[in-house]
Amino acid sequence: MNKMLITIDSTSEIPIYQQLSEQIILGIAAGDFQNGELLPSVRQMADEIGVNAMTVSKSYGFLREKGYVVTDRRNGTIVQAQLPLNPPFVQELTERLRLLAAEASIHQLSLTELQQQLAAVYPSEEEEK
């Protein structure tokens, strides 16, 4: 496994399990975690980042629910980096983008600037390798 640096901000208003989930998703998109790769056990991850094992378990549960990982009792938690495009995901994405676009508009960010921001953060094929 590539060593991805996961950092948790204990002073953030964002729950720790959500911070961890988001960082793992970002790591999958960046290629830090490969399809089929085994994530550390709940206990191991908790020790590595200094959080409660229940917090890691909640994060892994969220990732499993969204399809980013699968859990095999014998092998552990396995990354699923290649997910099919499905209508529920597209609907959720559209709703989240609608809110972000509204906030961008309120802050007077033009559509062109918003597109540039998206292009800057969207993982390229080169980064995934």
UniProtKB/TrEMBL annotation:
PROSITE patterns, alphabetized = HTH_GNTR
Q: GO MF annotations for this entry?
A: DNA binding; DNA-binding transcription factor activity
Q: Which UniProt keywords apply?
A: DNA-binding, Transcription, Transcription regulation
Q: Name one Pfam family in it.
A: GntR
Q: List, alphabetically, the InterPro entries matched.
A: Tscrpt_reg_HTH_GntR, WH-like_DNA-bd_sf, WH_DNA-bd_sf
Gene3D superfamilies in alphabetical order = Winged helix-like DNA-binding domain superfamily/Winged helix DNA-binding domain
Question: Which protein is depicted?
Answer: GntR family transcriptional regulator
